[in-house]
Description:
The complex is a heterodimer of chains A (249) and B (103).
Chain A: H1 7-21, H2 23-32, H3 37-47, H4 50-61, H5 66-76, H6 78-91, H7 96-103, H8 107-114, H9 119-149, H10 159-171, H11 178-194, H12 202-217, H13 241-247
Helix pairs in contact in A: 1-8, 1-9, 2-4, 2-9, 2-10, 3-9, 4-5, 4-10, 5-12, 6-8, 6-13, 8-9, 11-12
Chain B: H1 2-23, H2 32-55, E1 56-57, E2 60-61, H3 65-78, H4 83-99
Antiparallel strand pairs in B: 1-2
Helix pairs in contact in B: 2-3, 3-4
Amino acid sequence: MKLAASPAVRVGISISIATGLYGVSFGALSVTSGLDFWQTMALSLLLFSGGSQFAFIGVVGGGGSGIAAMSAATLLGMRNGIYGMQLNALLRPEGWRKYVGAQLTIDESTATSTGQADPAEQRRGFWAAGIGIYVLWNLFTAIGALAGSGLGDPKQWGLDGAAVAAFLALLWPRLKGREPVAIAVVCAVATVLAVPFVPAGVPILVAALVAALIGWFSHGRSDEGLEPDVEPYGGHHRQGHGDAAEAGQ
Amino acid sequence: MNLWFWILVSCVLAYAWKLVGYFVPARFLENPRMSRIAGTMTIGLLASLTVVNAAATGQALAADARLGALAAAAIALALRAPFLLVVIVGAGTAALLRMAGWN
């Protein structure tokens, strides 16, 4: 079977372009948040998880400490561990593929893979989306970082407004139904209440603790919040991650 | 140099999360609680980061052009605009509001 004829590869390529493109906004916002070009590239090359990368620069840009930025980014990266478990059960990678596949384990590559029913297609979808996004995300991060460093006063260009929009856009696809909206509102209120009392960056960790407590004590969908920023299958035909996990057992 | 240190720690821990998933026994998948916490924390952190970036300046709360960007981004998202367009709408709104004198 030719790769171009594989539906999973085609989905993987289109999701790579859509996701890779907004690496531009990450690159530009990162350098205007106070990171330099290579620090920005280190996050895209080594950390490689959009939400965590935006979290890191969002905390630093808001005057938070390096350790608060690291904590927010790391807590946001927990879901990649869940994706890793699902993909391991689904694709059963061996040897070096485990270590390379782990770095490519993010929302979009997981969603592209678990949205396919055939095991060979699941594998192709994962690698096509993972490699495609990795290459384009880093390319566009570099373009954004170079463009951003020539901008002068970031506020004049509304780049602080761009950061707000980016976080809302990352949150938005996860707000399907009443429960996730309620969690978001509770955590937003907790943040507002915490801001005057603790150093910058810490309110985000307070919200993370509140969210973790909600997750621990409440019983809802076990895949709540585990959605990609860009939906590869348009939202209707995709199997949930929960289904994928069951299929892998 | 200090920032470099935390960047690299973040990178190592991010990879550790990813890798750990591939090495824990499959029966952990049967425990929905970890997956649930990962999901609720994702929602909570992103909601919090949105609010902090929209309304906090250091330890003070502020109502400025960023709130306009938040509203404009929400409208763009409700109209199903793609990610990059939403970000551009947010930037444009904040810039225009500032030009109009609302800081």
